[in-house]
């Protein structure tokens, strides 16, 4: 496994993902979250949303990829938490919606762990708040 | 209608075990586009020191969300599901989940409060193996938007 030896302020390689309707359907099946706001435009609009929105848990999982790709071993992710601050609206086209993730090491601790702060933005706005992870460095 | 605050402190014991399979891990990893070999290749996973392929960090949403949905469906709690949104979510992993784990989930209602016309409900789930080994603790805050919101 590729071990990382980061310092405070180290930036993780950024990740940009286009979230499409196809991915929402796939994630619904994989996660067993079949809430119709994630696949049924008619229903989404009935409850006051502009269109179908991505599962917040999918956006969180994509942020997890940022950590997984960086660490090389996703088993080193000890804690991971996010706030869902704004929905990611996903139009019915092939382009989908671009979501961009960045991460930075906020603190390296004596116990061999580090805290990583993650940002997630779509359409120029943050879609996750207080997205933080604690990872084991060894 | 406010949530029934007497639900704070309630615990819901496990109703069944969930067996983590290699196939479900791959399906989930594919759905989130995470290409790690540790989700797919048992040899790579054992070389990294794990008993079998491991699961992505949010994989347990599969059983966590089902448990939350069961709790919020209780009519006595008074929660309007159509107004509910997921406020936050966290996972504290005591160790990575791996294929073959047989997991049991005990849920707790930790907190209920109202603020600015919205109701907030915090649900914690302690996830352990059938032998009682702690694997993960999840916390979710659910927000029920007020009528005016």
From TrEMBL, chain A:
The entry's family comment says: Belongs to the enoyl-CoA hydratase/isomerase family.
Q: Which PANTHER family match?
A: (3R)-HYDROXYACYL-ACP DEHYDRATASE SUBUNIT HADB, 3-HYDROXYACYL-THIOESTER DEHYDRATASE HTDX-RELATED
List the protein's name.
MaoC dehydratase-like protein
Locate the transmembrane regions by residue number. none
The record's listing under Pfam families reads: MaoC_dehydratas
Which organism is this protein's natural source?
Answer: Prauserella shujinwangii
Q: Where is the MaoC-like domain?
A: 15-116
Q: What is the lineage of its organism?
A: Bacteria, Bacillati, Actinomycetota, Actinomycetes, Pseudonocardiales
From TrEMBL, chain B:
Which GO molecular function annotations are given, in alphabetical order? Answer: (3R)-hydroxyacyl-[acyl-carrier-protein] dehydratase activity
Lineage top rank: taxon: Bacteria
**CDD domains on file:** R_hydratase_like
What are its GO biological-process terms?
Answer: fatty acid biosynthetic process
Domain (FAS1-like dehydratase): residue spans on this chain: 6-137
Checking Pfam families in the record gives: FAS1_DH_region (PF13452)
InterPro entries named in the record: FAS1-like_DH_region (IPR039569), HadA-like (IPR016709), HotDog_dom_sf (IPR029069), UPF0336/Enoyl-CoA_hydratase (IPR050965)
What does the sequence similarity comment in the record state about its family? Belongs to the UPF0336 family.
Q: What is this protein's record name? A: UPF0336 protein B0I33_11364
Organism expressing this protein natively: Prauserella shujinwangii
Specify the taxonomic lineage: Bacteria, Bacillati, Actinomycetota, Actinomycetes, Pseudonocardiales
């Amino acid at each position: 496994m590729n071990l990382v030896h980061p310092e405070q302020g180290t930036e993780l390689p950024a990740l940009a993902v286009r979230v499409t309707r196809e991915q929402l359907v796939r994630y619904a099946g994989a996660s067993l979250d079949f809430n119709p706001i994630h696949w049924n435009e008619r229903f989404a609009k009935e409850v006051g949303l502009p269109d179908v929105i991505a599962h917040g848990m999918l956006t969180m999982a994509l942020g997890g990829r940022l950590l997984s790709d960086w660490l090389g071993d996703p088993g080193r992710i000890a804690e991971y938490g996010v706030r869902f601050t704004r929905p990611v609206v996903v139009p019915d086209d092939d382009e989908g919606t671009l979501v961009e993730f960045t991460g930075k090491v906020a603190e390296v601790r004596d116990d061999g762990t580090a805290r990583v702060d993650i940002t997630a933005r779509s359409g120029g706005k943050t879609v996750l708040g207080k997205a933080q992870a604690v990872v084991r460095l060894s | 209608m406010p949530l029934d605050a007497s639900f704070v402190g309630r615990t819901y014991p496990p109703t069944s075990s969930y067996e983590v399979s290699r196939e479900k891990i791959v399906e989930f990893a594919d759905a989130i586009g995470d290409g790690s070999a540790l989700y797919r290749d048992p040899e790579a996973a054992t070389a990294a020191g794990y008993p079998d392929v491991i699961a992505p960090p949010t994989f347990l949403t599969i059983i966590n969300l089902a448990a939350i949905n069961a709790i919020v469906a209780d009519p006595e709690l008074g929660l309007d599901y159509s107004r509910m949104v997921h406020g936050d979510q966290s996972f504290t992993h005591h160790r990575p989940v791996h294929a073959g784990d047989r997991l049991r989930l005990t849920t707790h209602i930790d907190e209920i409060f109202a603020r600015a016309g919205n109701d907030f409900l915090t649900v914690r789930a302690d996830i352990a193996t059938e032998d009682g080994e702690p694997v993960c603790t999840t916390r979710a805050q659910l927000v029920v938007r007020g009528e005016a919101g």
